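Pasting as-is:
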Amino acid sequence: MASMCQTVICCRVTPLQKAKVVELVKKYKQAVTLAIGDGANDVSMIKAAHIGIGISGQEGMQAVLSSDFSFAQFRYLQRLLLVHGRWSYLRMCKFLRYFFFKNFTYTLTHFWYAFFCGFSAQNVYDEWFITVYNLVYTALPVFSLSIFDQDVNDRWSFQHPQLYTPGQLNMYFSKKAFLRCLMHGSYSSFILFFVPWASMQDMVRDDGKDIADYQSFAILVQTCLMVVVTVQLFLDTHYWTAVNHFFTWGSLAAYFALTFTMCSNGMFLIFTSYFPFLGTGRNSLNQPNVWLTIFLTTLLCALPVVAFRFVSLLLRPTINDKVRYKMHNEPPPAPAPRRPPTRRISTRRSSYAFSHSQGYGDLVTSKKFLLRPLRPRQALFIHPDSAVAQSQPQHYRTITEEPEGSQVS
């Protein structure tokens, strides 16, 4: 019955019962749960949920130490969910989709090459390219994508809470999205292998020499692969920063620099058995036919993606597309009227400034604070001639004198 309700209020429950409620929702609702608390009695509930949030308040730090996220006030939960939580889910899904695509494209090319090498398990790429592909060439661009990308800024995320709905429905990464990545990677690997293979069958250099060899073919295929995965990263990135540009263009520059270095004469003379592609990069990548093949391969791989997204945007736009379209078409806000600059005067004085001021030395040396006005002392005993007063020591006697004609009440 509790799972059928939208909201359940539990009063006067123990910490173990709080955890049981969270486990009940996890078991029967099949949902991602979040628990938030500010005291030690909420630790069991925070640990039982998928995501635990602690509020650092007056009840100690036990909830904060046991949580995944912590903040000072409960109102920050709105920004945590609608802005940072949605961005985190979007970035993680993009990272996974792009990671599967680039590795499917990279790996399935060997499957097509196996039909031409007699299934001898020979690599279609250079061995050094296989080593540094995921380690150097494609690591930092996808890393920057998973950190800085955002489809809508934080202001529009607050204005349109509906953007949080696709995350609840798991729309950005599911079995369907995984199959789409597999099909996209298979198609790209097919184009990456057969277009260079068909173009290099009768390709010759400008001087008439034949370059249709295994090493030249490997350099051409891996160069096409690097350009294709970089273009796909351009299509997936919505928010560009200086870090994205540096990592993306730097990875391409590192690929060409390492390729020419590993194919140089010096590396071959020093490590003959490790760098057998002597002069292949220089002899292959200086031909116009090779660059025309790279351009054609990239165009055939990126054109279906662009066409599919264009048709989807026209026929079946998502909530993200609608908000992004509205955001880009919004007129810029009017500039606020400029106010004359006001000088802020601080009321706090630093100890350094106080140490260099005049201080209270003159007051201390003048002895004025020691001179207090004499006030009449109140009588300790109302009747000085009483027996109680006479039995006390001399210094306890009152020395005040009553004026003549006065009466003591």
